[in-house]
Write a structure and sequence with these properties.
mainly alpha; two-stranded antiparallel ribbon; 71% helix
Amino acid sequence: MSITLLITIVTVAFSLWGFKSDSILEKFIFHPYSVSHYQQFYRFISCGFIHADLMHLAFNMFSFYMFGDYVEQYFSMIFGSLGKTLYILLYLSALVISIIPTYIKNKNSYYYRSLGASGAVSAIVFAGIFLMPTMEIGFFIIPPIIPGFIFGPIYLGLTAYLAKSGPGKINHSAHLWGSIYGIVFLIITSHFLSSYSALGSFIEQVKLYFVK
């Protein structure tokens, strides 16, 4: 069984459990106040395995599975025996890193809460885009006709704007920082732990796209 499928199954099972119990959601949701005042650091991870509703869960897991399968395979090719370990590390560390800005901003806000795997999923999606920049991607209702290296900046720009525009039901900050982290993680680990140049490969693939 692939790591991607395993994470998907665990997340779906845990989220469905959470749908049935408000006490489970309250215990595992990201609550910066509880982290800051009661040292409940596990919430950085646990919040990524629960979701607000079926639509939230389906969108995250569909995006994760579509990109995760490819990224996991690439990691095995690039890093060999370290591939699966680094893939798990990327996913779990992205849950933490992507929500740190949210924690800093809301650590004294008792009423703020956040949940979902969006930060980690964004990291996997953008690692996938960096590995396969000419892959065609859709944007909501737009069919998959936009190459990833164009889709990426558009998405990041829009997400940064939404994150800055104020509070809402969607934690755009986690999307933004998860996306950036996925790229940075790939560049750094490939540089130090393999002979593969993620940045060099990205540039070369984009160049070839324009000379076809």
